Amino acid sequence: FGSFGEVDALVNNAGMGPRARADILDASEESFEELMRTNVQGPFFLTQGVSRRWMTSLAGCPLPGGRKVVFVTSISAETASVNRGDYCMSKAALSMAAKLWAARLAPEGIQSYEVRPGIMFTDMVTTAAFLRQVALNVPDSLVPGI
Known about the structure:
3 helices; 40% helix
């Protein structure tokens, strides 16, 4: 923390998708491990370190309601996609981590939240095949003309 001062809120927003989409029958162990390290392990242990610091710190918090942890997961935590199963599993694990941290930190007065965005148009999802798959899953009543 040093020269950066105190941390009053932690937003766990780091995340990545598989470098190559693959059917779950073909997903590699390397890809699985990389996704779990980035999408689950990193946020889990960062939250652990920051939370320990908060619980032993005498410094006050300027935020209304006190310190906060936010986990940015994904709609993929609940949506099965066999062409990126490792990503879905990592976001489901992060979603559970958010629940566990909320239960653990609430007695300490630390608020914990999960934000579960839908599809965000980034490099991770802009392949033509993926966009076609998304379009096929959107009901006509929501977007006429698909």
